[in-house]
Amino acid sequence: MVVFRIDRRSGVATYLQIVHQVEQALRMGALEVGDRLPTAAQVAADTRVNPNTTLKAYRELERAGLAEVRQGAGTFITRSLVPAQAGYESPLRASLTEWLTEARSQGLDAREASALFESVHAVVYPIESARAAD
Q1: 30 Cβ contact list (under 8 Å, min separation 6)
Q2: Measured between alpha carbons, how far is residue 17 from residues 8, 11, 12, 61, 69 in Å?
């Protein structure tokens, strides 16, 4: 089950924050095909957002082919975003875990490590980084 965290100061629309968090959970393998997303009422109670905001996010996930609404049953994940080479036991994941552990031991906090990662990511993936900024 995914637990949504809404940052009202981020400047990102709330429904998009929900969409991005589901996508991230799919990439990390925390959500899998067939998993049921929390109801709009559950999300509203947990995050204090309007249930219609959650429904808008779920419609966007459905439009993207990542989820489907089953009348009377809920919203379910229909597609994974876990890259084959980045699963829980992959060498890439192990390397990234090692890197983050080293960054922490060097005194970087979570935000500093993220900033360093993002700066390197922008160099290695310049086109994708430019699109993500838009």
Answers
A1: 2
A2: 10, 10, 7, 12, 19
**Assessment of whether the complete model's pTM goes beyond 0.90:** no
Cα Rg for the chain, rounded, in angstroms? 17
Report how far residue 53's alpha carbon sits from residue 36's, in angstroms, rounded to the nearest whole number.
18
Q: What percent of the chain has pLDDT over 70?
A: 89
Of 27, 21, 15, residue with least CA distance to 2:
21
**Tens digit of each residue's pLDDT (9 = 90 or more) over 15-27:** 999 999 999 998 8
* C-beta separation of 47 from 4 below 8 A: yes
Which residues, other chains included, contact 124 with Cβ-Cβ below 8 Å and sequence gap of 6+? none
Mean pLDDT for the chain overall: 87
The answer on pLDDT for 133 being more than 70 is: no
* Location of structure tokens 């990439």: 27
CB contact at 8 A, 37 and 2 = yes
